Amino acid sequence: MDSEKYWEELNVGVKVVHMACALCQKVQKGLLSNTFDDDQVKSKDDDSLVTIADWSVQATISWILSNTFGSENVSIVAEEDVQTLSKPESAGLLGKVASTVNECLAEASRYGLKGPDKSLGPSEILEAISCCNSNGGPLGRHWVLDPVDGTLGFVRGDQYAVALAFIDNGEVVVGVLGCPNYHMKRDRHNKQQQNHISSEVSVPSPDMLEEGCVMYTRKGTGEAWVQPLVYGDRKYEWPNFAKQVHVSPIDDPALATFCEPVERANSNHSYAAGLASSVGLRNKPLRVYSMVKYAAIAQGDAEIFMKFARAGYKEKIWDHAAGVLIVQEAGGVVTDAGGRSLDFSKGIYLESLDRGIVVCSGIKLHEKLIGAVYASWESSSL
Q: Which of 52, 167, 318, 367 has its CA 20 to 30 A from that of 13?
């Protein structure tokens, strides 16, 4: 790959995700300390949650990308819309989103980005959110954003992620994953240190928050990197103490740790447990909110992530794009359960996905799991 290709997209993507992580930390702190009211957490039509952080991050990143690259050159595929915020009875909620966005954009220069000359009004906030309405597809360049992946984890004070990817003609070429509650460093010789990604932790400690990080990569570099979040009055300066991350060398199933989603509605835990047993996985699964599962594998904190959705559930590209590329460039393997690469060129969904998603730190573990899927599928209820 050309050493400069997609560098500007990566550079801006990493910086704006750092900004978004700072925004999310402030909102989450307010939620956990009850300084925000219940009106700032809403349920969507599919019963999933949305918060002021989701809308605020989407507006912030949308504005920065459009301002940096030119709105005519920016196509964004993102999760949130303005249906709720546009209602007359949501004027107060929209005002809180606007305030949150403007506070974040006021800090843009601290991250080496240009903010607005004056505060954005409610209509400009709605426009920034609503212009993220691209459907992606096989042609052209598209940003893919999940402003707060794992919103349930977010409101519970647990793991969540800000996920931003860049797709060029159907291929993910840049991946950035902000993980505000995930440790950047760990003891590679002590598996007990892994409990920092477990969803059993209800409220992150101050030390955990200080360990927040941003992972990132470009396609074809064979490298994935992690940076700590920026705290206090410190300005962001590249490379911001970046360290290269690598997947775990473990290829013995008996020593491997696997991750799966917390929510049973999104994944069949019983089938994954049976599969784990059949290949000799002995460690208790780590049930983790959000794309932090991908970060855990990229950094070597876990070796396997399996997700087998129930019939009728369609995976969306913003839930996987950034994490998939980061794991791959860190040395891992990501396919569907049939062993095929994930296809991000079909629009907002991962169309033609074969049964589920299997992410592994190496080819040996991956081959064993794919073989076990084929051997057991006919007897499953999926």
A: 52
Tell me if residue 54 is catalytic.
Answer: yes
pTM over 0.85? The answer is yes
- What the block records as the tokens of 162 is 């800000």
pLDDT of 293 above 60: yes
86 with 163, same domain: the answer is yes
State how far the Cα of 224 lies from the Cα of 228, in Å rounded to an integer. 14
- In the chain, the percentage of residues whose pLDDT exceeds 70 is 88
Kindly state whether residue 1 falls inside one of the protein's structural domains.
Answer: no
Active site residue 47: no
pLDDT at residue 376, as a whole number: 84
List binding-site positions: 79, 146, 149, 319
Of 220, 245, 270, which one is at a domain's C-terminal end? 245
Binding-site residues for Mg(2+) sit at 79, 146, 149, 319
What are the pLDDT digits (tens) for 110-128? Answer: 999 999 999 999 999 999 9
CA distances (Å), 366 to each of 41, 154, 169, 304, in order? Answer: 39, 30, 27, 8
Q: Which of 151, 217, 257, 335 is catalytic?
A: 151
Decide: 26 and 36 in contact? Cβ < 8 Å: no
What value, to the nearest 5°, has the Cα angle with vertex 230 and ends 122 and 158?
75
Which tokens is 255 given? 């020593």
Same domain, 203 and 351: no
**Does the residue 253 lie in any domain?**
no
201 lies in the same domain as 264: no
